[in-house]
Amino acid sequence: MRHAIPLLLVLLSVGGVSADESFQALFDRANRHFESGDMDSARSIYETIVRQGCVNAAVYYNLGNCYLHKGDIGHAVAMFLRAERISPRDADIRANLLLARSMIGQPVEPPKVNRFIGWIQRVHHALSTSELVFSALAAYFLTIAAFLAAMIDNRRRSRRRYIRIAVFGAIWMAIGVIGLGIRVYDREGVETAVAVRNEVSARTGPGEHFAEVYRQQAGYEMRVLRHQGGWAEVRLLNGFTGWVPDDSIERL
Amino acid sequence: MWKKTGKWTICLLALALFACEIGSARDSDDVLKVTARVDRTTVDLYERIALEVVVEGPARSLPAPSGLQLEGLKIVGGPQTSTQVQMANGAWSSRLSYTYELRAEKEGSWTIGPIPIPFHGKTYSSNPVTIIVKKPEAPPAQSGVDSDSNVPNDRQSDLFVWATVSNPDPFVGQPVEVTYELFTRVRVVNFEPERIPEFSGFIVEDMELPERPVVTNRTLNGKEYATAVVHRAILYPTTAGEVTLEPFAVKFAVEVRGRDPFDDFFQSPFGPPGRSSLFSQHQQEIRQSQAVSLHVRPLPAADKPESFSGAVGAFELSASAGKTSVQVGEAVVIEATLTGQHGLKLLSIPPAASLPQFKSYEPKAGDIVPNPARPGWSMRTVEYIYVPFEQGQFEIPGIEFSYFDPDASSYKTLRTDPIAVVINPGPSGEGMPVMARDQRGEIRLLGKDIRYIKTNATIRAHVEPYRTAWFWGSVVFPFPVIPAVVVLNRRRRKLLDDQGYARAIRARGESAKRLARARSLHAQVSLRECLDETAGAFRGYLSDRFNRPPASISPDVIRDTLSAYGVEAARIESVLGIWETLASARFSPVIPEPDSIARLLERVSECLDDLEKIRWKARVTGAGRSDRA
C-alpha cells in the first residue's frame, strides 16, 4: 500500500499528456499563414502536425477550415468530423461541419430514428470519450466505495443507505460502460470514411466493369465494410452499398 | 316413471326424424348444383390432373356422378369421396365431392363433361371443363447423361438436373430467369449445390426458394418423374454476344434400396432420411446440368434517351407530393413509386432535379416490396426532398425514367407530371439562408460565414483515454484494495466481538506503553512511581494475556496458566521471580537503587518479550484456547 500512491503517480505521468512546444510553434506559424491568407502554407503546416502524430481538435478544425476555403468539401468534412470526435460540443466545429455538409452536391438523407433513440444518440454523441471514461470511472469508484462502506458499517440504517448508493452507482456504471463500449467499438471496431472526390461511381463489385449503383459526391459519410484490390465496399447513411476506389475516400 | 319418459322421448325423436324426412322430400324438388373443376387446364402429355366433381343440394342423400365420358384423358385413380350433411332450421343440405385422378393420353384440346346427374326425375349437368394437352418441352431422355462415369446409365436417367432459361436471346440488361430443375425417379433424401456457375458476364440476383422443395410430377417419354427446382436466379447480361452458362452441379443423397421405389416416388421423393426404410442405404451422387448458350443482343444505339441508365424490361412510374404549400426552409417531399417485374434492386434511381431556388437532396429509396395490384411485380418507393431558398410559386419538374422495352425493341420514357409548389416567406423573413442537415436529419439554418480558425488553442496530443496507462491503472487499482479491506474488516469485527482476543492482541502494546512511562518516571527519579508503573505493566500484561481481572493475578494463577500453555518450568520460575522481586521492591520501606530499578525494568521488558514468544507457541498448540474459553 505504501508504494501504491507513487506507482499511481508514475502511471499518471506516463499516461498523461503535456503541451508539446514544437507542435505549438508549428500551430502558431500555420495560424499566421492562415491570417495572412496563405491557405496552402497553412494547410501544409497543419498537415505536418497531423502527420507527426499530434491528434488535436484545434489542428483538425483549422485544417478543415483551410480545405473549406479551398472548396475541398470532402476533406473539410473529414477534418471537422475528426475534430468533432475530440470536442463534440465545440460550437465552432459543429457550425463549420454543418456548413460543409450543406455544400455537398447531393446530400445523403440520414435514416430516421425513433425519437427516444434519437435523443439517446444525441446525448451519447455530445459526450466526448474522455467524459464517458471519467463518468464510468466515477461510477466505478462510487460503487466500490459504497459497497465497502456498507460492508464495514455495522449500523443498519447507514448500511442501507450505502447499499442504495452502491446500487445507484452500479446502474450508472452499467450505463457508462455500455456508452463507453459503444464509443470504443465505434472508434476501433468500425472503419468510417468520407468521400473526397466528386462524381465517383459506386459499383456493385470491386472493379470498373461492375454496374454503377449510385454516384458518390465529396463529403458523403460512410462506413467501410471491407477492402479488396484497391477498392472499398462502403455503406452510406441511407443504406446504399457499393464499391468505390480506395483513393476516393478519406478514412477517419 | 323413467321408462315412461324414455318411451315418450323416443317417440318424439321418431316424429322429428319423420318430419325431417318429409322436409327433405319437399326440399328435394329444389335445384341441384353440380360443379366440375380441375387443378390446371394446361398439361403436358402423360401428366396427371385432379378432377373434382361437386354435387350440392338441399337433400340428405345425393346421387353420385356417373357416366363420365373422357376423350384423350384416362382415369388412373380415384374416385376419392367426401360427404358433408347438415341440418339447419329443419332442412337438410348436403355436399358430395368426387375426386378423380386423370392422365393426359393424347395431345389436343379435350373437354370433360357436361357430366349428367339424374335426380328425382330430372337430369342436372356439370359445367364443361376444357383441358389442353401439349407436347412436353422438357429435356430429352439423354439429358440425364452425367460426366461421372461410375454412375450406371439407368441411374443417370432416373436422376438428372435440367437447366432452362426464360429467354435464350435477351438484350443487354434484360433480366433472364435461369432455373435448375431436378428430375428424379429415385428417392432423394437430401441435396446441396456442388458447384454454382460463376455467371461471368452477368449481374446475378439469386432468388429465394422454399425451405422444402415443391415437388411436382411430370411425365417424360412415358416415364414419370418427380421434379423440383434446386436453384433459380435472375441474370442481367452486361455484355452483348454469345454467352454460355456453365453447368450447375448438385450433390444428392439418394436412397439406394427402398421398399418400393415407385411407391416412395409417389409419396415423397424428397423426404428426410428418418422417413425412409430402416433397411435403406444412402448414396451420394453428383449430377450436373447441361450448359446453356445465350445470345445476348446489344441495345440499339439509336434513339437512346439521355435519362436511360440501363433499365431493360417493363416499368411503371408514378409520383405524388405531400405538402405543396410550404415556408422557406421547409422541405417539399415528393414520393415516387417505381414498379417493375425484375431488377428494381439494381436500377439507378432517377436523380433529383437541380433547381436554383431549391436545395435538393439525394433521393432516398425504400425497400422493394411486392406490388399488391400486380401479382409478380415489385415496387420501390423513392423519396425526393427539396428545400426552398426563396418564396414564390415554382414548379418542380416531373421525374423522368427511361428504359428499353424488349418486347417493342424500343426505348421508352416515363415522366411524372410536374408539381406546382407555393413557397411562403419563412418566420425570419431573411434572405437566402445556408441550410444543412444535422445528425438528426433536421434542417438547420446557419450563418453564411465560416467560423474562424482557433488561434489561442494549446496544442496537446490527444490520446483516447482508454488507451492510457492511468485508465487501466484506475480500473485495476481497487482489485487489491477490496480484499485488503475485507481482511481488515474481519479482524476489526473479531476485535469487537472477542474481548479475550482483543485483550491478548493489545497486551504487549499496552504493557510497552506503561514500561515507556516507567522509564520516563525513572528518568525523572520518581522511583516509587516507576516501580508502580512497571508492576502495573507486568500485571496488566498477564491480566490481558490470561483474560482475567488484574486483581485475580497471583503467583498460583501465573504458574497454573503458564503450565497449561505448556511453558517450561524454568521460565515459569523466572516469571514468578520477577513477580516476587517487583512485589518486594514496591512494598519495601527502602527504595532500591536507581540502577537496580533500571535493571528490573529491563528484566520485565525482556520477560514480556519472552512471554510473547511463549504465548505464541502455546497458542499454536491450542493449549491456551481452552483456558481462555
What does this structure look like?
The complex is a heterodimer of chains A (252) and B (629). Chain A has 252 residues and is an alpha+beta fold. Chain A has three domains: 86 residues, Alpha Horseshoe (Serine Threonine Protein Phosphatase 5, Tetratricopeptide repeat), CATH 1.25.40; 75 residues; 61 residues, Roll (SH3 type barrels). In chain A, 60% of the residues lie in helices and 14% in strands. Chain A contains nine helices and seven strands. The N terminus of chain A is likely disordered. Chain B has four domains: 110 residues, Sandwich (Immunoglobulin-like), CATH 2.60.40.740; 156 residues, no CATH class; 138 residues; 142 residues, Four Helix Bundle (Hemerythrin (Met), subunit A) (Up-down Bundle), CATH 1.20.120. With 629 residues, chain B is α+β, with helices and mostly antiparallel strands. In chain B, the strands form ten sheets. In chain B, strands 10, 11, 13, 14 and 15 form a five-stranded antiparallel sheet that branches. In chain B, strands 21, 23, 24, 25 and 26 form a five-stranded antiparallel sheet that branches. In chain B, strands 1-3-5-4 form a four-stranded antiparallel sheet, covered by helices on one side. Helices cover 28% and strands 34% of the residues of chain B. Chain B is elongated. In chain B, helix 6 runs antiparallel to helix 10, helix 7 runs antiparallel to helix 9 and helix 9 packs antiparallel against helix 10. In chain B, strand 7 and strand 8 form a beta hairpin.
Summarize the structure.
Chain A has helices at residues 4-15, 21-35, 39-51, 57-70, 73-86, 91-102, 115-126, 129-152, 156-189, and strands at 191-195, 200-203, 212-216, 221-228, 231-236, 241-245, 249-251. Chain A is an alpha+beta fold. In chain A, strands 6-5-4-1-7 form a 5-stranded antiparallel beta sheet. Chain A has a two-stranded antiparallel ribbon with strand order 2-3.
